[in-house]
């Protein structure tokens, strides 16, 4: 970076904070704006010339005015051919509003940025069929052409929230991706990070041209955010926000935050060798900035959707729902499905408004939004009471368990898993890597404003030294894999397309390895470590303070249940919601016929009871009882893992070794999650699982048969103190077969499996030509 660029940045920073503190609407006169930069007003001066992007707001203005005058054809010509946005190449070429959507639509799906991918995924009803997603790629352009031709009053707003908004998000993610590949490159100069890697383009698109500071009058996303902000007042919990009487004098919080985040992002590029191997943290810092910017971008869209629903404005509701609801496909699946049906399944349904608004609140945390970010609707809607927002609280109830501490940031790591699942299933491994490396949904606690804003990440959990608290499991895994970072290596290699599950394997197989290894290799060992930590805290007589005693146990609940199960007893009945052990138990409970009388799995019912028991034992400092409870939880969490091994043994018996089915990858990763543990208690059974479930080139999977795998699981369960009948059964096999069967007497008389293991090994040697 040149000295000139650095001086521009520092000069901008000082002016920005002066303007922000004094609420002056136009501060450009405080300095001479350097050539090649753009003054957007309100103290924002970019490092590069992005005026042509800001000028899109003038096209939006003229489209609105043309439609108001009844000249729909003129409006359409502005949309298709452009009017004010002159490219800075000097050739007189215009950048057109239609290009903002068609450029994204014409890119290969696998190269699309995450926000655009989530949109297509949601529009396609959570389909991973790339052809189906491609059919929706032109959704924004199709909507705009029709709206303008028909003279709809919502057409100009549609250009902002469908075209400009999405393009603005797209340039942010492309920018951080360029920074990441530049960091990894041996010759970083070949990758251009001009314009602060997308930040200049973003802020120009957001603020637009001629925008008055703090005004809702205008034709930009900035003005829309001001308009939305004035329709809401502060929640009772947030007294820092301006009251309804002073809001007209203040800039909307969204716009304030985006300006601050722009400045924070720009300052990253003042560091020498940004986005290079000599400054490898640049991408992580930039990722944090754009993640928080993306959160702010959602707020005015959701606010306007809420108002449109309350006003029962069908056309506005459908428009804002088109912008918001497909994005919710990255959130809890059952909530998304319901919102899509209510708001995008034809005419919006205003008969169940309270349910719809509660469902909207359920997706706040998925977007990184709190109840106070949205605020309370200012207008009185008569007999209708807008539901109080409780969904985004950090002490939110999880499957009936009410934590006493704020553990939702830990629980929301399951959103990282879910979103990685979506991205990798769509072939977006490059962007999924950001979720894995840097996290997105679980913000770390900050003790002061000076602390960096980072997220818990799966990659950090995968190599954390806290795993040592999970003994003896920790040593068992390290010994088995001969690598202390076994899970991290597996996931990174698969993301990069190298190693056993390389780019020659199917997208479905690679996705399965990455997501299930994240949940049941990485997070499972972290869960066991946290269980032991909770017991150790109880035994530590020097520990003072209720928070220090209860928080580790609340984290145990968060890592078992996650954030996606809902508050009700038994968690979510939708088997696609949960991503943690609890959700796995739900999926297996139906198949293995191990449901209780309330209709949810016995194993989850047992875990629920044990979590409550542990809380009571901590309150009473009954540490010996807590140890027994912890041991029981540790055993019960193995049940769905064992069931999953048997499930995929039955499926994989039908596959060849070179099949591209995800079943092979799933069978291997679930087996890998328990084999090191089984070795501690029953080495013969561990060998049988290894020989049948780990995929080897040219060797048929499950060559010993499904019942042999079931027998090994039953024997291992018994050795660990788990009644094999707790595993249930499937039509192909019964894990309790060697113990009298699932309907027999509870008395257990196991056969020794050493002979079976010997036969298994002999079978393997015979199978090799």
TrEMBL record:
Pfam families: Fea1. This is Uncharacterized protein. Residues 1-21 form the signal peptide. InterPro entries: HCR1 (IPR011643). Keywords: Signal. The keyword Signal applies.
């Amino acid at each position: 970076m040149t000295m000139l660029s650095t001086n521009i940045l520092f000069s901008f920073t000082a002016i920005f904070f002066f303007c922000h503190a004094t609420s002056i609407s136009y501060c450009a006169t405080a300095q001479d704006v350097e050539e090649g930069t753009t003054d957007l007003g309100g103290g924002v001066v970019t490092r590069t010339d992005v005026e042509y992007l800001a000028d899109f707001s003038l096209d939006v203005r003229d489209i609105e005015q043309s439609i108001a005058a009844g000249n729909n054809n003129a409006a359409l010509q502005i949309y298709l051919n452009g009017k004010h946005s002159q490219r800075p190449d000097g050739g007189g070429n215009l950048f057109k509003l239609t290009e903002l959507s068609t450029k994204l639509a014409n890119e290969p799906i696998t190269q699309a940025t995450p926000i655009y991918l989530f949109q297509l995924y949601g529009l396609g009803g959570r389909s991973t069929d790339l052809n189906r997603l491609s059919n929706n790629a032109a959704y924004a352009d199709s909507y705009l052409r029709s709206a303008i031709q028909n003279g709809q009053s919502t057409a100009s707003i549609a250009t902002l929230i469908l075209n400009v908004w999405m393009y603005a998000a797209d340039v942010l993610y492309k920018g951080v991706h360029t920074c990441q590949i530049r960091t990894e490159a041996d010759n970083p100069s070949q990758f251009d990070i001009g314009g602060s890697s997308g930040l200049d383009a973003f802020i120009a698109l957001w603020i637009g041209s001629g925008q008055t500071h703090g005004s809702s009058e205008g034709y930009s996303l900035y003005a829309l955010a001001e308009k939305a902000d004035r329709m809401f007042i502060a929640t009772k919990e947030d007294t820092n926000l301006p009251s309804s009487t002073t809001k007209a004098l203040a800039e909307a919080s969204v716009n304030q935050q985006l300006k601050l985040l722009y400045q924070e992002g720009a300052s990253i590029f003042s560091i020498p060798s940004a986005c290079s191997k000599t400054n490898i943290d640049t991408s992580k810092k930039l990722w944090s900035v754009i993640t928080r910017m993306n959160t702010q971008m959602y707020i005015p869209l959701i606010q306007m959707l809420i108002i449109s629903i309350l006003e029962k404005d069908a056309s506005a509701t459908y428009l804002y729902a088109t912008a918001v609801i497909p994005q919710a496909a990255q959130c809890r699946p059952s909530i998304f499905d319901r919102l899509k049906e209510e708001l995008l399944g034809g005419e919006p349904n205003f008969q169940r408004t309270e349910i719809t608004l509660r469902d909207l609140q359920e997706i706040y945390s998925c977007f990184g939004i709190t109840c106070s970010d949205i605020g309370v609707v200012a207008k009185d809607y008569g007999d209708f009471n807008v539901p109080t927002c409780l969904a985004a609280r950090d002490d939110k109830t999880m499957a009936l368990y009410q934590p006493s501490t704020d553990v939702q940031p830990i629980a929301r790591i399951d959103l990282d898993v879910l979103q990685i699942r979506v991205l990798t299933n769509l072939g977006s491994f490059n962007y999924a890597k950001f979720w894995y490396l840097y996290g997105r949904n679980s913000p770390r606690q900050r003790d002061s404003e000076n602390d960096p804003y980072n997220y818990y990440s799966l990659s950090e959990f995968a190599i954390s030294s806290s795993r040592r608290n999970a003994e003896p499991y920790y040593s068992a895994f390290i010994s088995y894999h001969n690598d202390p970072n076994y899970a991290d290596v597996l996931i990174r290699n698969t993301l990069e397309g190298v190693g056993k599950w390389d780019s020659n394997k199917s997208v479905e197989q690679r996705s399965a390895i990455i997501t299930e290894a994240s949940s049941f290799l990485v997070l499972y060992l972290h869960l066991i470590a946290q269980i032991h930590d909770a017991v150790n805290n109880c035994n530590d007589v020097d520990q003072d303070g209720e928070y220090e005693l209860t928080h580790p146990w609340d984290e145990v609940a968060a890592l078992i249940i996650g954030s996606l199960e809902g508050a009700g007893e038994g968690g979510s009945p939708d088997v696609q919601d949960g991503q943690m052990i609890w959700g796995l138990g739900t999926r297996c409970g139906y198949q293995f016929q191990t449901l209780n009388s309330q209709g949810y799995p016995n194993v989850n019912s047992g875990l629920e009871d044990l979590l409550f028991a542990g809380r009571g034992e901590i309150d009473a400092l009954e540490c010996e009882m807590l140890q027994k409870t912890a041991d029981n939880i540790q055993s019960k969490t193995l049940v769905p893992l064992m069931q999953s091994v048997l499930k995929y043994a039955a499926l994989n018996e039908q596959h060849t070794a070179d099949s591209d089915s995800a079943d092979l990858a799933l069978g291997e990763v679930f087996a890998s999650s328990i084999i090191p543990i089984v070795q501690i208690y029953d080495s013969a059974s561990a060998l049988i699982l290894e020989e049948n479930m780990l995929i080897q080139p040219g060797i048929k999977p499950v060559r010993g048969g499904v019942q042999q795998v079931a027998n090994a699981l039953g024997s291992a369960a018994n050795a660990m103190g788990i009644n094999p009948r707790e595993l249930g059964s499937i039509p192909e096999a019964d894990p309790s077969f060697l113990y009298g069967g699932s309907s027999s007497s509870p008395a257990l008389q196991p056969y020794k499996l050493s002979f079976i293991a010997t036969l298994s090994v002999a079978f393997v040697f015979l199978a090799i030509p």
